[in-house]
Amino acid sequence: MSMSQQAAPAVTTPPASGPKQTDGRTAQRPLALRLLARPEVGVFLGAVAVYIFFLVAAPPVREASAMANILYQSSTIGLMALPVALLMIGGEFDLSSGVAVITSALTASMVSYQLTMNVWVGVIVALVASLAIGAFNGWMLVKTGLPSFLVTLGTFLILQGVNLAVTKLVTGNVATDNISDMDGFDQAKAVFASTFQVGGVTVKITVVYWLIFAALATWMLLRTKYGNWIFAVGGNQQSARAVGVPVTFTKISLFMLVGFGAWFVGMHNLFSFSTVQSGEGVGQELIYIAAAVIGGCLLTGGYGSAIGPVFGAFMFGMVNQGIVYAGWNPDWFKAFLGVMLLGATLINLWVRRTATRR
């Protein structure tokens, strides 16, 4: 071959016409699958179904006053279900949350009445006590490495016994004294247990707090570094620690959020009824956890939202009041809740599998 011979230019073959080829990493999933991937979608559909069912089965539900009662019942569950859900997303759960509500109310009532102080002193002392209980649960968890089931089961039993024993020791009864005539009661009731009118219908202030806290929790989960920490420690604690997530702070603070929720609901109970029964609260922790699970939170952590438990709590309130408005035997309430829990769990499982299917 001579030195002057030129190489033939390369010939480029135009790409064949047809649909653009993409791999699985860049393929855009359909909108329906992206919506199904949201943890609150399944419970939203379930809540709509339950609402329609009772609209047909219980005509009084169609009245605005009935819906106000349903929302009130939902809010008292939802206010606690929100921090419980955040804790579950962080990979833990709290069995003491139900009796902690009563502990907070008992503390505020007895400090105010027995020490003859302004009720706001009792409110502040109760807040400190509730946050301390949450901090203790979180500290025990991270320092001992014990499962949150065991740690909070111990706290549940301690608080249950202390609630009854201390109340009987201090008041001589199983209930606290009436504090409705004490200084600061009216102001505290206006904050924690007031009502307002909407179109002639009386609405409890807890409904407003419930929705505000849900919005704040959603913003925190989706728009803040702390929200990323919650998902990280719930998904894989060791990996989260390896990349610099403050696991100890996140766990303890989540338990303290549950303590704050217990304080808030406890104050509502106290200033709604002026007195507290020391044996109440047992079993409520299962309602809070169930509302979070129905709302799409996983017991294994790392998955969930703050909106899902809102719909989960609404379903509980709807069933609770719907059975009454339908004139059915209220003894069936627990059975309905069990069916609802299993059904919602299966729906959430199907939704997640459908959303992740390629």
**Strand share of the residues?**
under 5%
In spatial order, strands of the major sheet run 1-2
Low-confidence stretches: 1-27
Give helix % range.
55-70%
First and last CA, distance: 56 Å
Largest sheet: 2 strands, antiparallel
SSE ordering: HHHHHHHEEHHHHHHH
Overall body shape: globular
Mean of pLDDT:
86
- Please provide the count of β strands: 2
Estimated radius of gyration: 26 Å
Find the structural class using helix and strand composition.
mainly alpha
The number of helical elements comes to: 14
3D structure, described in words:
The structure is a single chain. This protein is mostly helical and 358 residues long. It has helices at residues 31-36, 41-57, 64-89, 97-114, 119-144, 148-171, 185-192, 205-223, 225-235, 237-242, 247-273, 284-294, 307-326, 333-356; strands at 195-198, 201-204. Strands 1-2 form a two-stranded antiparallel ribbon. α2 packs antiparallel against α14. The longest helix is centred in the last third of the chain and has 27 residues, at 247-273.
Helix and strand arrangement:
Elements: H1 31-36, H2 41-57, H3 64-89, H4 97-114, H5 119-144, H6 148-171, H7 185-192, E1 195-198, E2 201-204, H8 205-223, H9 225-235, H10 237-242, H11 247-273, H12 284-294, H13 307-326, H14 333-356
Antiparallel strand pairs: 1-2
Helix pairs in contact: 2-13, 2-14, 3-8, 3-9, 3-11, 3-12, 3-13, 4-5, 4-6, 4-11, 5-6, 5-11, 7-11, 8-9, 9-11, 12-13, 12-14
